[in-house]
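Cross-posting from the chemistry board since nobody answered there.

I work mostly on the small-molecule side, so proteins are not my area. We synthesized NAP and want a rough idea of how it might sit in this target. Sequence and SMILES are below. Is it possible to get a predicted 3D structure of the two together?
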Amino acid sequence: MAREVDTQLASSHIYPIDVSYTIAVKSVGGVSDDYKNQSFKLIEWNPENSVFPTEINSSNFILLKDSNDLWDIDLDTQLQDMFDVISDKGFLLSVFRYQLTEPELALNQMNGKKALKNADLEKRIVDFVKAAQSVGFNLIARKLDSIGSVAILFRKLFSEPKLPKKENIIQISSNPEKWFETLKEKIVEQKENESTDESLWLIANDSSKNGIIGLINCLRLEPGGECLRCVFDYDNLIKGSVKFTEKPYSDILSNDLPINVLKNGKVGTYRHFTLNKDYDKKESNDYFLNVGHNRDLASLQWYDSKNLVTSKDDYDLINNKTNKIPCNIYSAGMNFRDVMFATGRIASGPQMLFTDCLIGFEFAGRRADTGERVCGFDMSRCYATSIDANDELISRIPDNWSMDDAVSVLSTYSTVWYGLIERAHMQKGESILIHSGAGGVGQAAISICQFYECDIYVTIGTEDKKKFLMNTYNIPENRIFSSRNTQFKYKIKEITKGKGVDMVLNSLTGDKLDASYECIADCGRFVEIGKFDLQMNKQLGMFSFLRDISFIGVSVDQKLYMKRGFVIRFFEWMHKNCDNGMIKPINQNVFKAEEAEKAFRFMTTGKHIGKIVIRTREEESNKNAKSGFTPTKKLVVTRKTYFNPNKTYIITGGLGGFGLEFIHWMMFLGARKFVLTSRHGVKTDYQKFILRRLASLGGNLKQFATKVVVSTHDCNTSDGTKKLLADAQNLAPIGGVFHLALVLNDCLLENQTYDKFQETIDSKTKAFENLDKISRELSIDLDYFVVFSSVACGKGNAGQSNYGFANSVCERICESRRRDGLHGLAIQWGPIGDVGVLADSEINTSLAAVVKQRINSCLE
Ligand SMILES: NC(=O)c1ccc[n+]([C@@H]2O[C@H](COP(=O)([O-])OP(=O)(O)OC[C@H]3O[C@@H](n4cnc5c(N)ncnc54)[C@H](OP(=O)(O)O)[C@@H]3O)[C@@H](O)[C@H]2O)c1
């Protein structure tokens, strides 16, 4: 555990501390070289036959991992030994198993160890605690994990605690004017009088929104600050002065811990805990599929759709206002493009600007209003249970098709229709080479080309696929070649007597693309539907164009969103040909929602024949319009933050370094209306540049049209706050408040002036208090109420006691809101390197041990 302790200490202290470690083991021989070469001192101690090692004398901290070997040793002697080697006020942290897992029980049995029951483990812990207390240890805290370990912290308090003198107890009220000078004087006194062991007790009992925690965290890192202790009476139960002779204050005094919070009748403290692994998970019936941060197939997960809201003024990519039709999705079709995006193999292109989801662009389902069966396209997010579909991109599903049939036709037939009929002007009886003939597009091409009585050549990857094409489409065996090498080129040349084919529908890459290019007859057409070589800007020789060859690059996705009427024409063609044998739904490989990753992986193997479909609802046997919908399966999904484009978001201090980046992130996740507060309005060229750029984005793409209002109303006053809220509400209902306003006045308390101290506090607390109070009074229902706090508050930072106090007040306000069922969130950011108040600055305070984080790590 030595390494874990070292890592914990390094990460929980924000200034470097020099620790000398000693590891006691039964035999040094068994210790890995890693530890021998470290700064850890290794000693041998066999508890069965030697006394507790005296080398550990005067330790500040002993970590003891209990094991069966220690059970036979007399507990009192063992604890007395440890008590003797720990220095006064030092700690003993003992770690026990309180519950054994099945594998542990089995292993114990295999190793011939005593068969232990959980009751034995419990007894061991009780006996240990009793013995520890009897030799003089104070029990401080106990922490359980969920896999059967408990850590118990004891402290050695040798000397009888001295009752604090009256002048060493300072009341920290919410108004710093009442205590600032006294506290400053006392700290200076303490610094100058190093020999004193008197503690200075700070007591806060006037309000649960007191900032004492951030204050003491910072002050304890300043010269003279080690003597500080605090009692934060969260419930404001202490009336008058604290009676250190009575419980729980007598215990607080003797435990001598710096921070003591009295809440709900218990004494505790504030701690950072690692978030639970599934902190962002919930059960939901409404979800969509997306890749996570890693952008690989293992990160594919279903996300909660609850907060996804469509703008009332939604525009498509060519600035036409869209009419949105809410639809319930039953099936979505998979395309190779999805796999390429999900694995990061192709770059995302401009879509990345306006959406965090790039996968899923065809679906079948029912209109939520009429129940009519519809199928259609969208830019992304179609692997989902519901969608607000653009009415120009959907159409009725022919009665004889199932939902899965419908999605098997959309991108496949639209690609072939557009590539071969619309662009290559395919004529009856022409010859064609179709690559990957057993895939979705390949089969659609075969079907259409057979209808056009073409002379068809195909390539495939496996024998199964060959058999499938021979059986399903009656393609003769000698017209089917392998797509895994370039032999098809020679065979086609041979069969066509050197002439080649009139058309190639190509999806192969590299040398196979070159070979395909060579297969085209004079005046032929090369129809490229693959994306990879296009993205890679592969070069093709110009010489062949002398033979009047046409190269046709097909990007149906571009056409779908950039040419109005394209989809309508495709649907007209689809309805005209859905019964005459030209369009036949393609066979499907159907996966359930919970098998989504498997479906993606299946496509990467290249073994599938036909269309891969992800089904989120089972289709009803009744194909008519209906009002009830089959429910979706409840899944455990990931929650993600999204903003409502129809609401206004207030960002106080929004023209600051963090604020200007933050707006972009909020926009990316949906927000379109902002009110930014500032004392002086737009001043710098950079602020002007960003605001101009936001405006011009909306000019080019109405989807991005963003309203940004800069307000100079003074939120530190109620009047100013009321005006700000009214202005924001004039834009649209207020969706949230993000409090970023800040004025820093860093200085050790001994050199600080009251005015500067108070200015920093006011810059954070007053506006936040006003916004909380007045939004409650006006019954404004806020989805977000967030303050940007700092690690300087949570861990402390010398020179920032005012900032620590202020952030702490804001954090307590968030707690009070959450108690009342309202939103409230404080984020303790680390120092940010590239923008904001610390950008380009050398931090010369104790925060120097914290690596500056980059702004993009804050806005993932
Ligand atoms: N940057 C970091 O490393 C970091 C780390 C942890 C936490 N944070 C937190 O993140 C937030 C933003 O930090 P930042 O780096 O963007 O700071 P910043 O660049 O200094 O921006 C803060 C802005 O607040 C504005 N402001 C001050 N008093 C105001 C008032 N009364 N009303 C309206 N606006 C006021 C200032 O603009 P005007 O002069 O125009 O009024 C200033 O531009 C702060 O709350 C900070 O505590 C930042």
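Reply from a structural biologist on the board:
Welcome over. Reading the output above for you: The chain is about 30% helix and 20% strand. The longest strand covers residues 86-97. Happy to explain the token format if needed.
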